[in-house]
Hints:
This protein is α/β, with parallel strands linked by helices. It has 2 domains: 2-58, no CATH class; 61-158, Zincin-like (2-Layer Sandwich), CATH 3.30.2010.10. The chain has 6 helices and 6 strands; from the N terminus they run βββααβββαααα. It has helices spanning 34-60, 63-75, 108-111, 115-127, 136-142, 148-158, and strands at 2-8, 16-20, 23-29, 83-87, 95-98, 103-107. The protein has a 3-stranded mixed beta sheet, covered by helices on one side. A hairpin with a 2-residue loop joins strand 2 and strand 3. Helix 2 (63-75) crosses helix 4, helix 4 packs antiparallel against helix 5 and helix 4 (115-127) packs across helix 6 (148-158). The longest helix is centred in the N-terminal third of the chain and has 27 residues, at 34-60. The protein is elongated.
Amino acid sequence: MEVKIIRSQRRRRWISARLVNDLLLINAPLALSQERLDKIISGFKLKFARKKLKTELDKEKNLSDLASALNQKYFDNKLKIDSIEYATNQNSRFGCCNYRAAKIRISHKIGLMPKWVRKYVLMHEMAHLIQPNHSQAFWDIVSRYKLTERARGYLMAAGSVNSPD
């Protein structure tokens, strides 16, 4: 990602950034030190890279379509999911479910894994909409997915994050 810095005497405190194609345009105060600006620019780069990754994952590996198929196959279309999305700032969990609001968030790292692993993590989080804890009833729901044990093993081996929730 190429960076173009525009410094201005009028600008006193605020730094702004926008991405135009693959060019990061930074507007910064003239008096700001280069060292401080470099730290801020690396934060902007990370923010825009995460946004781009989330957009690509949403387009290429859509969770809504996968959740709809799982809902139909395993839940007889009884589940109502308000929102389901990838999260690029979720690094300690594979997924999380707010069962009261019916919102599911899946780590972007899962989007980079095989489809059968994504299905397992979605199945796990969707099961929380019925059973919000990890009781035996919950695991009975999750185990309806035939690749549950295989996917759990894959996720343990991946080891980059701890657990589905």
